[in-house]
Amino acid sequence: MAHKTNRADAFGQNLYVDTRGRCEAPVPFTRAVIDGLATGGGLYVPQELPSFTVDQIVGLAQLPYAQRAAAIYKAFNIDLPDEKIDELMARSYGANFDTPEVCPITSIDDVTHILELWHGPTSAFKDMALQCLPQFFSASAAELRARGEIDHEFCILVATSGDTGKAALEGFKDAEGVRIGVLFPDGGVSDIQRKQMVTTTGSNVQVWAVRGNFDDCQTGVKRTFADAAFADKLLSEHRVTLSSANSINWGRLLPQVVYYVSSYAELVAAGKVAVGAPIDVCVPTGNFGNILAAWYAKQIGTPIDMLLCASNENRVLTDFINTGTYDISDRPFVLTPSPSMDILVSSNLERQLFELTGRNAHAIAGWMDDLNTQRRFRIDVDTFARVRETFVADSVDNATCLATIKSVLDEHNYLLDPHTAVAYTAAQNLRGENPVLIASTAHWAKFGNNVYRALHGLDPAADLPADVAALTGCELNQLIANETGKHNVPAGLAELDAMPARFSDVIGNSVDDIEEATENFLRR
User: What is the DSSP string of 96-156?
Assistant: First the structure.
């Protein structure tokens, strides 16, 4: 599937097909990014993948991060000019990150490397994609307008388990021709995550708390996207169409491919991995997008061997990888110290299965229909064998997650957030002889309540001591910083208490509730 393209001769001709085979024809990158979700509910993937040699990958270490990203986008032969790609990447990865490295790697020991993906403006890995996607979304919209293909504006709807929401708001705020509404589960995110969202500035933003859990939010948004009558109404009455900034949008996934390719180059440049030697990658996984990006990095030439899928107590992906059956028909939804992984419906698994079946859209459509109607599906023997060739998986219970935070601090003087603690534990359980790159998806200060529990040996379900519970999230982070000596709390988190809350609406999770809220937002 991977191949070399002469971009000068075949500019923009790498089109996008959908995983369910329901689109009439493939579409260019610009259209895939603007639409987000394909017609018929499928997800877009490129027809062709580029091919890099190991020397080309290692050579990326000589470039600033923005230029590495630009080189990979050009290799995917997207339908935007090279100079435009360079310009957009320079905007995406610059002073908005707190280090020129953008996503530095900290080595815990000679064979365990932490990829810090949280140096962006909202202190979560979602910034790696959501400082980039809005740039390419706006450029794609401008390109389609210039071609006479669209004459309307956009409303981005985002369901979030915590981090995507703020990152999307930060990326799209005040963007011309775009409004963005974010839905998060009421009571299902940390205090810091909630404050990040409800204090967001910008004239084109809206935030709603939703009754229920993240899956309720995500399902409601997906069904809203699938409502053709609502889409017609938005276009006729508001001159607006819906689009997505969730990882169902290929424009969210491609920036994540970049950082896995880039990280291999960094490890070689630092002398931590020999040229061409394989590494394993361990990813704390909920919606499957981040680990899927590592799979695509492997396909285009990065010497990645095994992908280690780390689940929390919502272990649907671990069970799937170990059995070939995806079953949420009678599976409880568990609130854990790692709320961004509290997900039962993993949207990007659809893309992965599409690839592993040899792009069998008929099989994917059938399995997704089974999941929708029966809440379960089972893949065939051959596809399961292909899953097991590359993926291994383990789940980590809440108590072990917190114990890992304390032990890693004690042994390595490094403070993990709960999601990275899940990945760290899974990596130790699953690893073989290869060095392991662990994706660290958030700064610890986004989850101070559970970090405090970890440091003080409290049960995951235990109430915080009354005096600690009375603290705001910012005050609690300061307490933890004083106790641990880890005073690297990002300013965007440390200053949240001083920012006024702009949004307080709580809505239901039905399609009618979400559509009514969306229309009210557009009338504002």
Answer: TSSSTTSS-EEEEETTEEEEE---STTSBTHHHHHTTHHHHHHHHHHHHHHTTS---EEEE
Please tell me whether residue 432 adopts helix, strand or coil conformation. coil
Residue-level pLDDT, tens digit, the chain, 524 residues: 455 556 667 777 899 999 999 999 999 999 999 998 898 889 999 999 999 999 999 999 999 999 999 999 999 999 999 999 999 999 999 999 999 999 999 999 999 999 999 999 999 999 999 999 999 999 999 999 999 999 999 999 999 987 889 999 999 999 989 999 999 999 988 889 999 999 999 999 999 999 999 889 989 998 998 899 999 999 999 999 999 887 889 999 999 999 999 999 999 999 999 999 999 999 999 999 999 999 999 999 999 999 999 999 999 999 999 999 999 999 999 989 998 898 899 999 999 999 999 999 999 999 999 999 999 999 999 999 999 999 999 999 999 999 999 999 999 999 999 999 999 999 999 999 999 999 999 999 999 999 999 999 999 999 999 999 999 999 999 999 999 999 999 999 999 999 999 999 999 999 999 999 999 999 98
Helix, strand, coil shares of the chain, percent, nearest 5, are 50, 15, 35
Q: What's this model's pTM, rounded to 2 decimal places? A: 0.94
243 φ, ψ to 5°? -145, 175
Other CB atoms within a 10 A radius of the CB of residue 145 amount to: 13
Tokens of 225: 């996207």
DSSP state of 324: S
Secondary structure (3-state) at 392: strand
Q: How far apart are CA 264 and CA 279, in angstroms?
A: 8
Q: Are 251 and 32 in contact (CB under 8 A)?
A: yes
Report the alpha-carbon distance of residue 76 to residue 258 in Å, rounded. Answer: 11
- Rounded Cα distance between 53 and 401, Å, is 38
Contact 280, 306 (CB under 8 A): yes
Q: How many Å apart are CA 191 and CA 187, to the nearest integer?
A: 9
Active site residues: 126
- Amino acid at the residue 476: L
The closest alpha carbon to 303, from 338, 336, 335, 261, belongs to: 261
User: Measured between alpha carbons, how far is 180 from 503 in angstroms, rounded to an integer?
Assistant: 13
